[in-house]
Amino acid sequence: MSSFLYRVGRFAARRRWTVIVIWVAVVVGASALAGVLGNHLQSSFTVPGTQAQSALDALEQRFPQISGASAKVVASATSGGQVSASEDLIATACEDIAALDDVVVVTCPYAMTASGSTAASDGAASQISANGDMAFIAMQLSVAATDIPDSLVTSVAQATAPLADAGLTVAVSGLAASASSGVDWTELAGMGIAYVVLAITFGSLIAAGIPLVTAALGVGLAASAITIVGALVPVSSTAPVLATMLGLAVGIDYALLITSRHRDNLREGMDPPESVAVAIATAGTAVVFAGMTVMIALVGLGVAGIPFLTVMGLGAAGAVLTALLVAVTLLPAILSLLGRRLIPRGRAERRAARRGAEPARTARWVKIVTRQPLLTALGVAAVLAVIAIPASGLRLTLPDAGYDPPGSEARVAYDLLDEGFGPGFNGPLLVTADISRTLQIEQALTALENAFQGVPGIAAVSQAFPNEALDMAVVTITPDSSPSSDQTAQLVQTLRDRAAAFEATNGFTYEITGQTALAIDISDRLGTAMLPFAIVVVGLSLVLLTIMFRSIAVPITATFGYLLTVGAGLGIATVVFEWGWGASVLGVGKVGPVISFMPILVMAVLFGLAMDYHVFLVSRMRERFVNTGDAHTAVLQGFSASARVITAAALIMFSVFFSFVPGGNAIIQPIALALAVGVLIDAFVVRMTLIPALMALLGARAWWLPRWLEKVLPDADIEGEAVRRMLDQRTWREAERAVRGSGIHAHEATFGDSAPLTVDLPGSGVLVVHGPEAAAVCAGLSGRIPDVGGDLAVGGRLIPFEREPLSRVSVLVPALPAPTDASTLVEHVRRQVRLDGSRGDHRDRARRAIELWGELTGGPNVLDEVDVPMARLDEHQRWTLDAAAALASMPEVTVLDLQRRSDQPVLLERILRSASPSTTLVVAVGDAVVEVAGHLTPHGRAVTVLRADRSADAPGTQHASTEAVV
Predict the structure, then answer these.
(1) Which of 739, 722, 735, 747 is CA-nearest to residue 802?
(2) N or C of the chain: less Cβ packing under 10 Å?
């Protein structure tokens, strides 16, 4: 991973203008397309598979007259007044509204004449409050809530304007969409706080602005993408807000980590392009894995089986993915563009120099928490467990007009209806009954009405009425408790439990639906999905963390800390939004139950963010442990090296999340507060207190991994060890560039399971290899295998990092030739010459190869037999033919494995005599041939003999024998 990211960062740094232009074009193009398509986001929720949703779907198909949206116009008299004083005005408003397009029927509290499709009526007294100071007009629409045209909203406002002019308080609910929760001054304030934190962290105003710019571009692209998708499939209106929160938070944090590492590299004297590439390879690797854990958690929301929640998770995961792509491509281009202007200077340089040593405050803190690690761990766990206790009382619901901002028209109407008609009026239950199997319609309607009379918890039951086809009936029930209360949830369950007995008596059954019942069903669905979600998301992330850190204990401690974090975050959210503590100070729009998907969404996001901090912290600890082998020192130094960045990242995330709380959307507020508090708790209490204590308590056991598992797991290299090794190899090569720029030079090099080998072979030299690992050495020296350790340069190319360039100028003839095919001898030779990358006329090379084949086999010239099929050649003939083709191609490096040949001494002498003097030659032979090889002097070239043992057989370094030079 680190090697790949190094190449990505290096490319972006060198092609900075190309990368920047492409990103700007993509962002502008997506924004323009989103503007053309328009906003089609939805505020309604559907949950397939629930009783409430299936009943609503049946209602839409069989009773379309009432499947559309419904709305109310509430008129309230001033204190002490009676609404009947404006009876004529209200009746006129009813008639005007009934005449509007998209209005199916109007129910008026007073007598009205026929208008539109509404018949004349004497008025519904039930729509007048008990004390007579309030009344409402009910209207049923032919369109869904998401399709209400603006013209209808304007026309209703014009029809009710005379009521307001008469001194009545007028409010309409169910028409206008909920207030938008776009970016306002609080979010901008959060960005301002983030800029201040970055400026203090970097000591540079320019450096502080980089993460904000890249994060803003990423969020803009993600929001445009969500809008584009929303024009094609249903997308919740809260999805862009969630994506904005996460995109800003992780985008700033990821850029902070990479920029901080880049500036450290610059201070150490690296050239800007190289510094950028190394920063992407080291810090960028941690960022990629941290982002992957966030995306796993968000995509895991699909486990709940709720479409709108799945889409929200995918949208947020897309924002995180965009932030990752920006961090590893656009960010390095910008950093390269700024060049050396990001080098710390003046005070910033002095502060950076002081940070080169162990920071005093962080060192003191980590020593305190690790002095008695068991007491620290138990204390932190106990405190967070107590904070989490209120979370058990968290109540869930779906948002309605009561969650709109205070003072909005829909919220005013909601509060008036609650005050005048009781708490259950805003959350009626709709009962649908399939009466297609009975011919006694009147009896069925009467039975349906009577079934709910006298049931505890019901305030009123409407008259049952059928559809035009007489195959479905509907009854409206008004509970005497609020929509979000436990009593209403219990009432819904009671009514559903009684459905079986009702069916046994009457021959048909009923279903409970409506917004309130749908909210209850969603809460139940989310409750049952919580365990599968935790298993899938936590399980996948545990696997990912195990791969990252190559440890069993590290993922387990990370998950334990996460559970404490999410419990404490939900506990504090419950105290504020359920108990009302500090609600007025925070500008909470609604004290009461929170949106149903809030807990599972907070669990998903906090898991990803918690793993971010864990990766940032523990990766430094592992880096120190790999270098020192001292577990306790690794905890102290790793903590001190990462504490500053984690502190800044946590403060930035807190400021971004918390900026959505004061005066924000009532749906987003509890989510934002739980995330903001969770980030603080996770960063400062869990990751910077609990985790160091647990790591100190475990000691070296924290990095234990079963041997069998270590062999199976891929090496993620989050510490950037491969890149550091590449840089060290460059330094090693450049130290003696004149010597190591050609030939074969190895220092403590390993090939597969071989013992460390050291050799210095000049260009055009001959290396004779023998021993049990000779074949692995041949494969490594020709660039054919990646499993090469230590320092190795072949023809000036560093292996394994430049294996591909080496493989293009080298030829390997293994001990066992490839199976034969239907080609002839000459066709095979020509193909081999082309594969060997030889230049010039291939026909001449092929002719030379056939001549050399005769020399190697010791036979006559075989030009007359070039059409012989390859299938007629035995293994030895095929091997010598491949060797002849390799020698005729005259590559820069020729590697021949003779170990399976029976006549090795003679064959070796012929090969050395036939090989081009300009080719560096490597041959693998059996042990018995070594003495013969040492006495050969081909073309006055140096011959070096090297034994390659297995690492278990030869614990020490294997050095080449003394060269024989003529």
Answers:
(1) 722
(2) C
Q: What is the mean pLDDT of the chain?
A: 82
Show the tokens assigned to 512.
């409970």
Global pTM value: 0.71
Instruction: Report which of residues 859 and 422 the model is more confident about.
Output: 422
Least confident residue range of 270-279, 287-296, 424-433, 710-719: 710-719
As a whole number of angstroms, the longest Cα–Cα distance in the chain is: 125
Number of alpha carbons in the 13 Å side-chain half-sphere of residue 32: 6
* CB-based contacts of 181-186 (< 8 A; 24+ apart in sequence): 181/238, 181/241, 181/664, 181/665, 181/667, 181/668, 182/241, 183/244, 184/663, 186/659, 186/660, 186/661, 186/662, 186/663, 186/664
The phi, psi pair for 962, rounded to 5°, reads -60, 135
3 state DSSP class of 950: strand
* CB neighbours of residue 422 within 10 Å: 18
Specify the pLDDT at position 17. 92
Distance between CA atoms of 900 and 925, rounded to whole angstroms?
Answer: 8
Q: Which residue in 951, 590, 618 sits closest to 756, CA to CA?
A: 951
Strand, helix or coil for residue 449: helix
Task: Report the residue count for the chain.
Answer: 966
Find where tokens 């390269």 sit: 336
State the Cα–Cα distance between residues 809 and 229, nearest whole angstrom: 49
Three-state SS sequence of 689-705: HHHHHHHHHHHHHHHCC
Among 606, 638, 641, 640, residue whose Cα is nearest residue 622: 638
CB atoms within 10 A of CB 241: 25
Tokens 């005050």 belong to which residue?
Answer: 419
Residues paired with residue 466 on neighbouring β-strands, in sequence order: 473
DSSP summary character for residue 838: -
Rounded Cα distance, 560 and 697, in Å: 15
Query: What share of the chain in percent tops pLDDT 70?
Result: 90
Q: Which two tokens stand for residue 464?
A: 């049952």
Q: 612-623: per-residue pLDDT in tens? A: 788 778 878 887
| Cα gap 566→929, rounded to integer Å | 69
Task: Work out whether the CA dihedral 854, 860, 865, 871 comes out positive or negative.
Answer: negative
Please name the residues in contact with 651: beta carbons below 8 A apart, sequence gap of 6 or more. 193, 197
Tokens standing for 871? Answer: 């299938």
pLDDT in tens, 564-588: 999 999 999 999 988 888 888 887 7
Q: Name the band, by pLDDT with cuts 50, 70 and 90, for residue 355.
A: very low
Asked if 602 contacts 566 with a C-beta cutoff of 8 angstroms, the reply is yes
Interior CA angle at 338 toward 333 and 344, to 5°? 125
Burial-class residue 600 by CB neighbours within 10 Å (0-12, 13-18, 19+). buried
Measured CA to CA, the distance from residue 726 to residue 3 in angstroms comes to 9
Distance CA 959, CA 757 (A): 6
Handedness of CA 346, 348, 353, 359 (dihedral sign): positive
The one-letter amino acid code at 925 reads V
Structure token pair of residue 437 = 């199997």
Chain centroid to CA 108: how far?
53
Confidence check: pLDDT of 961 > 70: no
What 8-state DSSP symbol labels residue 398? -
Arithmetic mean of pLDDT, 209-232: 86
Q: What is the CA radius of gyration of the chain?
A: 38
Give the model's confidence band at 484: pLDDT under 50 very low, under 70 low, under 90 confident, else very high. Answer: confident
Residue 521 has pLDDT above 80, yes or no: yes
939: left (phi over 0), alpha (psi -120 to 50) or beta: left
The DSSP-derived string for 578-602 is TS-TTHHHHT-S--SPEETTHHHHH
Q: Is residue 427 packed enough to be buried (19+ CB in 10 Å), middle (13-18) or exposed (0-12)? A: buried
Alpha-carbon span 277 to 7, nearest angstrom = 7
